[in-house]
Task: structure prediction
Amino acid sequence: QVQLQESGPGLVKPSQTLSLTCTVSGGSISSGDYYWSWIRQPPGKGLEWIGYIYYSGSTYYNPSLKSRVTISVDTSKNQFSLKLSSVTAADTAVYYCARDPTNQWEPPGWGQGTLVTVSS
Amino acid sequence: EIVLTQSPGTLSLSPGERATLSCRASQSVSSSYLAWYQQKPGQAPRLLIYGASSRATGIPDRFSGSGSGTDFTLTISRLEPEDFAVYYCQQYGSSPRNTFGQGTRLEIK
Result:
């Protein structure tokens, strides 16, 4: 089964860029079987979808974050990444990477999540 | 942009009772890519239902999902103590469908 693991700094200063990587194991990111997504959840709040990338490089972002978000893929490392620029305290959240299957009969799956705190 | 609205915001029930949670979309969505998650404090969301009605691996059969078009329902037939948590619906897959509902808190009465 395809598994996901987030990694990156747990603390980012205001106005800087948040960078996270998701490593995919148990399958190829280039298979075309999934959209590779990022989701976040601020403390005590609900879930927010950030965006996704397909193995071909096509992306789609949440309109509310689009101006600050970049998602990229590195097929050689079987990884995809999130960059969120000009962060503020409001970007403090648990960030999850996820796989959204193109096959309707397969379930989606998430990583365990990583907490990123924006603070000076 | 599709908006998913969950109701009620909070549901107070007793163990053994039946719970019915609603997820309504602002426009018709594909039931093939509608999921339900359960989240307990300090934990990552746990997938319960995908494709509107398929139970994820290891999910007890007291959990069931149904619906199509704009109206979807998660039903817990007989509440166990461990079922009290926050529940989210999600439209996933390719754009512009990706979005979450705001959540329903299921609390012990």
In short: Chain A touches chain B at residues 35, 37, 46-49, 52, 60, 62-63, 94, 96, 98, 100-102, 104-105, 107-110, 112-113 (CB under 8 Å).
